[in-house]
Amino acid sequence: RTVYVNGQYLPEAEASLSIFDRAVLFADAVYEVAAVIDGALVDYPAHQQRLARSLKELGIPLPVDPDALLDIHHELLRKNALTEGLIYLQVSRGCADRNFLMPHKATPSLVLFTQAMPLLDTVAATNGLRVISRPDMRWGRRDIKTTQLLFASMMKTEAVAAGVDDVWLHEQGMVTEASSSNAHIINDAGVLVTRPLSNEILHGITRAAVLDYAAESGMQVEQRTFSLEEAKTAREAFITSATAFVTPVVEIDGVAIGTGRPGPATQRLRELYILRSRSTHGG
Ligand code: PLP
Question: Are 159 and 95 found together in one domain?
């Protein structure tokens, strides 16, 4: 695999970041993951807008101009002949002696790599996911897409050790997100219910697109907090992320959601999302 690090395309075995890079020492870095289908980027402009916002929140400059960044994406996809999978991008503040005080003049590091993987036909899409709930103990700026992912990684690992697929995190019983995706339910009235945007959740690119498509297709959408209890008695539940698209959730804490099988509205939203993503390849 060829990867990109700070201006160079390299075989992955030859690529490296300094141990003094603040990504390593402080998770002082932000990232994006975009899906690639049919060799093309999905929702690229939205990912770039969120990247710009994350960087601004942390005061890290983007080390290349936006046109050059898009060229790097295309070149890396080409070099790796990627047709289906993801492209990962990380910008860190750069290198400095270890100090909690952020350096004024570090040179940001830019890293990109691709990962080939099936996204369209997956076991999770067919069978749905089983999740357990856990208190959300992450920090309070989950709207910034930083590489500080340790709690989410711990919870994902705990879920798999418990024999299920993932967690739904909650604050005082109100659902925030899954470990690496946004959480949604569809109630008995057919209304899509999802937590509103705030500092408590990542502003998912897939979430935004799916809410648009749902509304366009005549579905009612309510952005409000919802509880685990409400989720367990919902007709359908699902998650969204750049690589999961729309994936059904069929069980929460051992309680079957709806029929315990992926629901029709969720499946329709997944199909709609994939169809629209393919027809709006902007990359
Ligand atoms: N929430 C969290 C915590 C995430 O890590 C992610 C994506 O990785 C998402 C939500 C979904 O965001 P997106 O749809 O932009 O991939």
Answer: no
Same domain, 142 and 275: yes
Among 49, 182, 269, say which to mutate for ligand 1: greatest number of ligand atoms within 8 Å of CB.
182
201 Cα nearest atom in ligand 1: 1
Mean pLDDT of 121-141: 98
Residue 178 has a CB neighbour count (10 Å cut-off) of 25
Q: What residues make up the domain containing 46? A: 2-116
Q: What is the pLDDT of residues 142-187, one digit of tens each?
A: 999 999 999 999 999 999 999 999 999 999 999 999 999 999 999 9
- Does residue 180 line the site of ligand 1, with CB under 6 A? yes
Q: Is 221 in the pocket of ligand 1 (CB under 6 A)?
A: no
Q: Is 79 a catalytic residue?
A: no
Tell me the CATH number at 29. Answer: 3.30.470.10
CATH of the domain at 212: 3.20.10.10
Q: How far is CA 105 from CA 59, 163, 242, 257, 270, in A?
A: 11, 47, 33, 52, 44
Distance, CA of 18 to chain centre: 26
Give the per-residue pLDDT at 283.
43
Specify the residue with its C-alpha closest to ligand 1, atom 12: 204
ipTM here:
0.99
Q: Is the CB of 266 under 6 A from ligand 1?
A: no
In 3-state terms, what secondary structure has residue 62? Answer: coil
| Residue from 56, 79, 145, 156 carrying the catalytic annotation | 145
pLDDT digits (tens, 9 = 90+) for 21-42: 999 999 999 999 999 999 999 9
Give the tokens for residue 270: 């997944």
**Domain match, 87 and 143 both:** no
